[in-house]
Write a structure and sequence with these properties.
The chain has helices at residues 8-19, 31-37, 67-72, 74-77, 91-99, 117-126, 136-143, 148-167, 178-191, 253-271, 279-292, and strands at 24-27, 49-53, 59-63, 81-85, 107-111, 130-134, 196-204, 225-233, 242-248, 304-306, 313-317, 330-333, 336-337, 344-345, 348-352, 357-359, 368-370. By secondary structure, it is α/β, with parallel strands linked by helices. The protein is elongated and about 70 Å long. The structure holds zinc ion (2 copies).
């Protein structure tokens, strides 16, 4: 865990806060807090907050009843001061007093991107005259390039979700509902090593044309294409996300034609990944062959998203994002074609390496046809 959550990140976060002109970063439970400390903190109405001042030592404020969990986490092993507050204390006043921003000119703090409004507003009251901006962008430069230990954690997540996909054909039977298949998949995501299931999209027949379809009571039928997009969070905190499209019996002829186009486009996009290439060029590498084959208007989403402690984080592979790729960046490559009354998507998580692209999902991308 010390490789995955090195103590030096706290000092780098303080430097990043200072470079951004912020007095401190205030990080309630979420990916930023976990990234900096390894502490998978419980999010509730009781304030837990990692305070990273630009100019002084960081500290963690936790409800007294959660102090043992915080102390047991990697946070205490990195020498972070952990302060418990009691049920009758005002933790916001405690935080403000300890931070000591009184005096001086205009100032601002960075607040966690997903901090509850409840806490944002109470912090505003406790720190009068202090502006609030998002902390996420301050930390993106650190988080976007994964360390070797983070890539290992993502690789383990990719292998675990690949094992689930290998079992999916056994659950796709005519007469079973999407919801029943999704329940089997959710159990397997945990059985194959995740701490929890984050999503299990099973989109069959006409539902396959809806990229974020919620599993329904629709029964699978011969001739269906089934988009299965699944992911979970590993005990390490790192996420998986992988899509394969299956067919039950013989799919419609037009489906087979565009599935080939899609598979070639997904390959071309992976082949385009290397350091210095703008993120949007990978989107174009996926989109151009799909457009050339006449399916461009059916590819209705970006090509990919970064992944790490969150399933969706920077960098986003989308037209307009000219940010150059760099070694260590991890993201999905997931073009889709959804003409209706069927659709298809192929998704792998990949890592940009010094030499190009390392795919973390390796289960077959050929169309898997199960008996109808
Ligand atoms: Zn996905
Ligand atoms: Zn995805």
């Amino acid at each position: 865990m010390s490789d995955l959550y090195p103590a030096e990140r706290l000092a780098r976060a303080a430097e990043a806060a200072q470079a951004a002109g912020l007095a401190a970063l205030l990080l309630t439970p979420g990916p930023e807090l976990r990234y900096l400390t390894g502490y998978d903190a419980h999010l509730s109405e009781r304030l837990t907050c990692l305070v990273v001042p630009a100019m002084s030592e960081p500290f963690l404020i936790v409800p007294r009843l959660e102090q043992p969990a915080a102390v047991a986490s990697p946070a205490s092993r990195m020498g972070l001061e952990i302060t418990g507050w009691d049920e009758t204390d005002d933790p916001y006043a405690l935080l403000a007093g300890r931070l000591g921003l009184a005096g001086g000119g205009p100032r601002a703090v960075g607040v966690a991107d997903r901090m509850w409004a409840l806490m944002v507003l109470r912090l505003r009251d406790a720190l009068p005259g202090t502006g609030q901006v998002l902390a996420g962008p301050v930390l993106t430069g650190m988080r976007v390039r994964k360390s070797a230990a983070e890539v290992d954690a993502l690789r383990a997540a990719g292998a675990a979700i690949d094992r689930v996909h290998q079992r999916v054909p056994g659950w796709l039977r005519p007469g079973r509902t999407e919801r029943e298949v999704a329940a089997d998949i959710s159990g397997a995501i945990v059985a194959e090593g995740h701490a929890r299931t984050d999503f299990a999209i099973v989109a069959s027949g006409p539902n396959a044309a809806s990229p974020h379809h919620e599993p329904s009571d629709r029964m699978l039928a011969p001739g269906d294409a089934v988009v299965v997009d699944i992911g979970g969070t590993m005990p390490s905190g790192y996420c998986s996300d992988c899509t394969r499209t299956y067919a039950i019996g013989s799919p419609p002829p037009e489906f087979a034609a565009y599935y080939e186009v899609l598979a070639r486009a997904q390959d071309a996009a992976c082949a385009a990944v290397r350091p210095g290439v703008p993120a949007e060029a990978v989107d174009a590498a996926a989109r151009d062959p799909i457009t050339a084959a006449g399916y461009g208007r059916y590819f209705i989403h970006r090509t990919g998203h970064g992944i790490g402690l969150e399933t969706h984080e920077d960098p986003y592979l989308v037209a307009g994002n000219s940010e150059p790729l760099a070694p260590g960046m991890a993201f999905s490559v997931e073009p889709g074609i959804y003409p209706g009354p069927h659709g298809a998507r192929i998704e792998d998580i990949v890592v940009c390496t010094d030499g190009g692209c390392d795919r973390l999902n390796n289960v077959t991308r050929d169309l898997v046809v199960v008996e109808g």
